[in-house]
């Protein structure tokens, strides 16, 4: 695997090594030894799989508040998405900056999202399927979210939004006194 740092410290775009022959292809999506080079003590405790039917739909931007903050490994296994992370660490030089990248079944790229980041994506095709690995179990009382259209973040979504959940539409806009997580 090749780990390429993104513009947000601690976040990595991951290109797995793909081995192909006449039968098809094979790739490793996780190796504890290889990941220890970016996060020495990493333990996945929950795996999730989602399907989003409509092109242009947005899920997110979601995060969990301490003490339930989580790192994520994100992978698109069907279709294509514009995947976005936002740094919520107030002490970070990239506080409230975002990074976006296309993840797709075709490019097989993965994104490592550290703790104290928000995460979301917009579908670029119909019927997108995503796999998420989490370092902390979901805690409903610790969930938080940012508005996809918050002017303070100024995220450039590639398509007009077509579908959002009521929950995601209710996330508050950031204020100047937002202290991060």
Provide tags for this entry.
mainly beta; about 180 residues; single chain; 6-stranded antiparallel sheet; 2 helices; 5-stranded antiparallel sheet; 13 strands
What this model shows, in words?
With 181 residues, the chain is mainly beta. Helices cover 4% and strands 40% of the residues. The protein has helices spanning 32-35, 166-169; strands at residues 2-5, 12-15, 18-21, 24-27, 46-52, 58-64, 72-78, 80-87, 98-104, 110-113, 117-123, 128-134, 143-145. The strands form three sheets. A six-stranded antiparallel β-sheet has the order 1-2-10-7-12-5, with no helix packed on it. A five-stranded antiparallel β-sheet has the order 9-8-11-6-13, with no helix packed on it. The longest helix has 4 residues, at 32-35. The two termini are 30 Å apart.
Summarize the structure.
The protein has helices at 32-35, 166-169, and strands at residues 2-5, 12-15, 18-21, 24-27, 46-52, 58-64, 72-78, 80-87, 98-104, 110-113, 117-123, 128-134, 143-145. The protein is mainly beta and 181 residues long. The strands form three sheets. It has a six-stranded antiparallel sheet with strand order 1-2-10-7-12-5, with no helix packed on it.
